[in-house]
Specification:
- The complex is a heterotrimer of chains A (about 180), B (about 120) and C (about 150).
- Chain A is mostly helical.
- Chain A has 7 helices and no strands.
- Chain A has 2 domains: about 80 residues; about 60 residues, no CATH class.
- With about 120 residues, chain B is mostly helical.
- Chain B has one domain: Helix Hairpins.
- Chain B is built from 4 helices and no strands.
- With about 150 residues, chain C is mainly alpha-helical.
- Chain C has one domain.
- In chain C, helix 2 crosses helix 3.
- The radius of gyration of chain C is 18 Å and the shape is elongated.
- The chains are: A mainly alpha (about 180), B mainly alpha (about 120), C mainly alpha (about 150).
- Chains in contact: A-B, A-C, B-C.
- Chains A and B meet through helix 1, helix 2, helix 3, helix 4 and helix 5 of A and helix 1, helix 2 and helix 3 of B.
Chain lengths: ~180, ~120, ~150
Amino acid sequence: MSAVLLALCLAIALLLAVAALAAGNLLSAVIVLGAYSLVLSLLWAAMGAVDVAFTEATVGAGISTVLLLVALLHTSARRVAPVPVARWLGVAAAALLAAVLFWAAPDLPRFGDPASAPNRHVSPRYLEAGLAETGAPNIVTGVLGDYRGYDTLIETVVIFTAALGCWMLLSRRPG
Amino acid sequence: MSLDLSVLAGEAVYLVAFGLLALGIFALIAHGNLMKKVIGLTIFQTAVILFFVATSAKWQATLPIVPEAGAAGPAAGYMNPLPHALMLTAIVVMVATLGVALALLVRLHRRYGSFEEDDLLDRVE
Amino acid sequence: MIGGHDSVIVQTAVRLLLPWIRIFGLYVLFHGHSSPGGGFQGGVIFAASYIVLGLALGRRELERCAPERATLQWAAVGALVFFGVGVAALVGGGALLDYGSLPLPVPEGPALRAFGVLLIEIGVFLAVAASLTLIFVRLAKVAEEESA
């Protein structure tokens, strides 16, 4: 986990997010969002989260970009008004959220600490007993399919419900 | 010197995640264009995923895939797999909500002809 | 309208590549047990094969290969396979989704549990691939109707 790679990916991701939101043209914004997803997936691969990076690269940089482009396909309204800085509610909400989070940041566990709270309790058991109990060397698949199987079941129902909802919302009646 | 850079880069991950969260909330509330709101929502969701993945990282540890033969080694040598599994679910839910949001947007555009919130509010009345 | 790509090079290349994309998607599904991957990633790659088909060969061809009702039914089949494995575990005497009690001729222990995980990953693969393909086909059809 190289610190230089982390810093580089973070800087590029932040720049791309700002660019996606500030873009005047919706087409540019969608493409930049695809680039942002790809840089984030590189960042997660650099942090050792390969399954998450794989999924984000296919879903975020691939499928999401295509879906957004198809939704934009026949709209003529591509030009967007510049960022409305008069929307003080947005700035206030963002500032409040940022203030609370930055105030709590020193209390977070140190990044990369193997003995931090999220890395204790049940997670070492998954790593040490995972292969013997679930039979899967890829511990993430073991956790997803075996230890936390109920979550995966409900999530499958969620993706099916989304497709069903999309199908029903866009049924054939025009106007 | 290298240790200081690592510590800085590590804490920067959390701070960038918080910055992206604030950016997403700002876009969701302040932008008038519905498509920009959807983009802001996506940035917000990916920032949450970044935060969780950051809590699972460990220095000098490898991927959470244990060798099939032989000893697995101590748990501190592998990244924490639990947030990874939770975030996999989160990414799939992200694309599911994106699909439904785009269906709503496209239907609104088909009916009222615009993505701008102000125009839509005028035309609905 | 997604009318397909004009260039015959793109169309031929896509026709030749499609089986390989699908095999790769299936590989990611089956090998997710011991390498990064699994049902979700494989399903998304399989859906991407249909999206590439639609973009290169046109919406008519996509409609012919992935008719909407059938795709929705495949998505439901995926969710039901997952739930069915859970119910089979109940029938076998254990709790819901307790793979150790699946009534299958596989020896007890990690081998049986790994087989259970594979079965549910197949269910997830079908559900995710069909759902994403359906969302794309629907949005593409609306884009065509708007231009008409």
